[in-house]
Write a structure and sequence with these properties.
There is one protein chain. It is built from 18 helices and six strands. It is mainly alpha-helical. The strands form two sheets. A three-stranded antiparallel beta sheet has the order 1-2-3. Strands 4-5-6 form a three-stranded antiparallel beta sheet. Strand 4 and strand 5 form a beta hairpin. The protein starts with 7 loop residues before the first strand and ends in a 29-residue tail after the last helix. The protein binds s-citryldethia Coenzyme A. The site of s-citryldethia Coenzyme A has 21 residues, from helix 17.
């Protein structure tokens, strides 16, 4: 079959009369990418893209987003179908291994995760070093990083079996560490994972159970949590995933890379937004106050942002927000909390924002974080744990991207360049001669 000619873009420097042929790399769907590796050698320039808004940092086969069409695919499967038909364990298998599992593969994978949920008892003592009011995200990122001190036997990142064991351990233990952080902040005893519960059920049990009475997992809450985990599992090269890739690209151990991802997710512009949305809804308090907050959001001097709205990639509805909004209704109905004032306020806020020219012109739609907090609070998750729930789910995506990067023979350490605008060369001045 005739080799397809390599498509190139020509870039010309009219001042110095030089040009470069930049190869075009085509993906399976979505925009092609210009390979600019030769641009400095041939034209003595860098590209400039603060925030990497238009830069493909890597090739990936895991997740695809079409921001204009509001499309999200996990390994090619639409998020709407996975939300309706799949489970978090099945989605975890899909994201990590690339294909939907057979029933036998899913049973084996789920068993591998289930039998790694306990953490070393010494790790539990780490929590006593935190003050009771430490934010759970601070505890989770610290304890995850310390896991590398326990698993010396499986830290060879070039050993596929070590990578597999790491994947099972971190996905299995994140909920246990998360729940332990919550119990520490309450001053309550740690609750061990149970092998008779599924993944989401175990999270609820470890967060809510107390030793002095039996705890019954609410199937509605467990189903809602499992769906939230599916929706939060991965999202291309978002800030925390890019952090995991960059940290992992140095050859740092995978626990350190995941801990870096937890820290990046914590920011209110990223995964911390779900906690910030609840605070915002409580701050707004009533529909009458919405205009005041919209005005603040439009006033650049206020540095105030309407949390839960806007997205770097989605310039249409975030498909996850649409699914969560629909789920809100169902969960609140089934929990008998349809009069949830925060949900009513969220619906009215969304309605008003989507008619407001400032937001419409900037294509600022509700994102995944806008409604998730309403569901977390309806099933009893405390607000300080909302981003921790996000981290539990996104650990699957972080691991999938770390595995994809580390197993790529062409992997190189990430090292962006810069546009220097500082002082030009100058000589040292002795302190006696200064000012
Ligand atoms: C997540 O990347 C991912 O995929 C992330 C995520 C994932 O699954 O990993 O989807 C999860 O992080 C969702 C986003 C959660 N964050 C928030 O809800 C925080 C509030 N939103 C923003 O701060 C903001 O919208 C971002 C950070 C999400 C996106 O910021 P961008 O792409 O850098 O957009 P921008 O700051 O350049 O804004 C463009 C314009 C600006 O106004 P102008 O300068 O054009 O006049 O829109 C304005 C911004 O001021 N704007 C907002 C706004 N978001 C953007 N104005 C008011 N309120 C907002 N929320």
């Amino acid at each position: 079959m005739e080799e397809k000619a390599q498509q190139t873009f020509e870039l010309t420097d009219p001042v110095r009369g030089r040009s470069a042929q930049l190869p075009v790399r085509n993906g399976t769907i979505g925009p092609a990418a210009l390979d600019i590796a030769a641009i400095h050698k041939e034209l003595d320039v860098f590209t400039y893209d603060p925030g990497f808004g238009m830069t493909a940092a890597t090739e990936s086969r895991i997740t695809y987003i079409d921001g204009d069409a509001g499309v999200l695919l996990y390994r090619g499967y639409p998020i709407e179908q996975l939300a309706q038909k799949s489970s978090f364990m099945e989605v975890a298998y899909l994201l990590l291994l690339g294909e939907l599992p057979t029933a036998k593969q899913l049973t084996e994978f789920t068993g591998n995760i289930r039998y790694h949920t306990m953490i070393n008892e010494s790790l539990l003592r780490f929590f006593n070093g935190f003050h009771h009011n430490a934010h759970p995200m601070a505890m989770v990122s610290a304890v995850v990083a310390s896991m590398s001190a326990f698993y010396h036997d499986t830290m060879d990142i070039h050993n596929p079996r070590h990578r597999e064991i790491f994947s099972h351990r971190i996905i299995a233990k994140l909920p246990t560490i998360a729940a332990a952080a919550h119990k520490h902040s309450l001053g309550q005893p740690f609750i061990y994972p149970r092998n008779d519960l599924d993944y989401a059920g175990n999270v609820l049990n470890m967060v809510f159970a107390v030793p002095c009475e039996p705890y019954q997992v609410d199937p509605i809450a467990s189903q809602a949590l499992d769906l939230l985990f599916v929706l939060h599992a991965d999202h291309e090269q978002n800030a925390s995933t890019s952090t995991v890739r960059l940290a992992g690209s140095t050859g740092a151990n995978p626990y350190a890379a995941i801990s870096a991802g937890v820290s990046a997710l914590w920011g209110p512009a990223h995964g911390g937004a779900n906690e910030a949305v609840l605070a915002l809804l409580e701050q707004i308090g009533s529909v009458d106050n919405i205009p005041k907050y919209l005005a603040m959001a439009k006033d650049k001097a206020s540095h105030f942002r309407l949390m839960g709205f806007g997205h770097r990639v989605y310039k249409n509805f975030d498909p996850r927000a649409t699914i969560i909004r629909a789920m809100c209704h169902k969960v609140l109905e089934r929990l008998g909390r349809t009069d949830n004032p925060l949900f009513e306020l969220a619906l009215r806020l969304e309605e008003i924002v989507l008619k407001d020219e400032y937001f419409v012109s900037r294509k600022l739609y509700p994102n995944v974080d806008f409604y998730s907090g309403v569901i977390y609070s309806a099933i009893g998750i405390p607000r300080s744990m909302f981003t921790v729930m996000f981290a539990i789910a996104r650990t699957v995506g972080w691991v999938a991207h770390w595995l994809e990067m580390i197993s790529d023979p062409g992997m190189r350490i990430g090292r962006p360049r810069q546009l220097y605008t500082g002082a030009t060369r100058r000589d040292y001045v002795d302190v006696k001669k200064r000012g």
